[in-house]
Amino acid sequence: MKTVTEFPRKVVEYPDMGIVMPDGCRLSARVWMPHDAGDDPVPVILEHLPYRKRDGTIFRDQLTHPYFAGHGYASIRVDMRGNGDSEGLMDDEYSEQELQDACDVIAWAASQPWCNGNVGMMGISWGGFNCLQVAAKQPPALKAVISLCSTVDRYADDIHYKGGCLLIENFGWASTMLSYSSRPPDPLLTGDNRWRDLWLTRLENQPFLAPLWLKHQHRDAYWKRGSICEDYSAIQAAVLSIGGWHDGYRNTISHLVTNIPSPVKGIVGPWIHKYPHYAAPKPAIGFLQEALRWWDRWLKGIDTGVEADPAYRAYVMDSVRPARWHPERPGRWVAEQEWPSSTVNTQSIDLIPDGSKPAIVASPQSCGLAGGEYFPFTFGPELPGDQRPDDALSVCFDQPELAEAVDIVGAPEVEVRLSSDRPQANIAIRLCDVHPDGASELISYGVLNLTHRNSHEFPEALVPGETVSARVVLDQCAYRVPAGHHLRIAVSNAYWPMIWPSPEPVRLALSAATLALPLRPLATGNEVTFAEPEGATPWATETIRATNSERHVDRDEKTGIVTLSIVDDFGEVRDLAHGLVHGSIARETWTIHPDDPLAASGKTHWTQTLSRNGWSVRTETFAEMRSDAQNFIVSARIEAYEGETLVFERNFEEGVPRVLL
């Protein structure tokens, strides 16, 4: 990445600008703007997050926000209420209070003498979600949005219930937020005494969100609120949607470009869950330059040509050897002026010939361990590995060897007819690229709770032995399968630990299956190009402890228990500007028995540390999830320390009935 140190306008920074909400709650904002914005007002770019601007997102903030400010914007990074250096309490993700606070910040910013009245909102993940939801509320000053790694459907395309199946990230992310939000504000900003009162109040009111999310197992009003797919027309701001093929949120770009009526463009690269100017696998792109083109057009009225950009720009990845991490993915950029595209044609492939005996799908509960993380994050061993171990536990439909390469661009679908011997069953379908030597690389996958075959809102129990039809939509992808390779469609009824298992072992009889494969004419080279990445001066730090990520799968040959153990040590660093030292370690274990779905369990343990000049605090959070045939059982614990003294502890435990899950 090229570091830019000289900008068209000189930048000044305000590290703790207080923004008071109508109810009196003070939100802490870090603001960068041109030094002469008071004389020459500028548009505002807002990022509104719970992830702590002081020590959480500071790496990317340093690259991004000063860059925007140097090009004539006031760039505002706000800690949401109940997090970081802001007052107040947080009770859920994307609450009405959170969205209203963002609207109030937008109104406040637009009224400042250094603002020209136009506001843009951006973010990745949580910030990508809430900027779309805020746009749907139509605050008058909000003219444009850049949303990365986000979703239009809070129920079926987030970390909760993919395809109506319970994602283990539902519990995993609740555990993460319990840890993230357990940290205090920085005493250097809030004062030597006040930080502690804010911290203890925060801890006393800290929610453990897993039970709340488990109480909404179907697509009810709780999930519809904030799901912009309920009314795409509510979004009137111009939207640039960006994502990555190695992220969990691959589908949003297509959904937005297809459905919203306001100006919209989409870009999908080979990346994990990161901003694309520093993302991997490479190639990264000049995201900040692309963002400026978007902001300049919609916030300054400058003709930058964005309206003539292709509707959908996607990176078609070449086939590579399966690996848990790829520093880069060879391939090429393709461009579609309209999306959906008339150049993408669907090839229909019958997987089970007429008159064949049904294929019996009865996977061990441990099938899925090669699947990788839902949204890889650490530049470490989190990607899907060689699929052969999971293929061996699935029913596989291998296609003939390809005489010519094919480009798969879009969302593959599989129509199935099947019967189940249990009233609730899941199905997982993977599309794989099989190399000549048998190595199997995951292209895309989809999962479906078969009781949701007709509706996520009104599921229907299966009648054992009765044949039903269902459609499994796999995730969007852009992938070249070379000549000499062949496609494999692998079907299982377990996918651990991506989804929670059914309450009983299941046997599916698959009598018909048809693959709809979206094929685009073979691209001969890059159809669009991007500038090389740029960024402002990187964050200045001293490394106290280096980062490290580990993954281990252990099988107890005596008991049969299989355990996936994960350690993500995010390291410990000192900020050279304000001296704060922060560190973080996450530990997870996911346990299953191949023959017993009720043996499934997940445990997490997070450690967070903060210190400066003899002051130190630490939080330890622990969480566990298990289930019996009737209930999910979740528990958690927070411990908070000043130095080595325990100053706060709190336990959570709750059982939630299973409902066709």
TrEMBL record:
<dbReference type="InterPro" id="IPR005674">
    <property type="entry name" value="CocE/Ser_esterase"/>
</dbReference>
<dbReference type="InterPro" id="IPR008979">
    <property type="entry name" value="Galactose-bd-like_sf"/>
</dbReference>
<dbReference type="Pfam" id="PF02129">
    <property type="entry name" value="Peptidase_S15"/>
</dbReference>
<dbReference type="InterPro" id="IPR029058">
    <property type="entry name" value="AB_hydrolase_fold"/>
</dbReference>
<dbReference type="InterPro" id="IPR013736">
    <property type="entry name" value="Xaa-Pro_dipept_C"/>
</dbReference>
<dbReference type="InterPro" id="IPR000383">
    <property type="entry name" value="Xaa-Pro-like_dom"/>
</dbReference>
<keyword id="KW-0378">Hydrolase</keyword>
<feature type="domain" description="Xaa-Pro dipeptidyl-peptidase C-terminal">
    <location>
        <begin position="292"/>
        <end position="539"/>
    </location>
</feature>
<protein>
    <recommendedName>
        <fullName>Xaa-Pro dipeptidyl-peptidase C-terminal domain-containing protein</fullName>
    </recommendedName>
</protein>
<dbReference type="InterPro" id="IPR050585">
    <property type="entry name" value="Xaa-Pro_dipeptidyl-ppase/CocE"/>
</dbReference>
<dbReference type="Pfam" id="PF08530">
    <property type="entry name" value="PepX_C"/>
</dbReference>
<dbReference type="GO" id="GO:0008239">
    <property type="term" value="F:dipeptidyl-peptidase activity"/>
</dbReference>
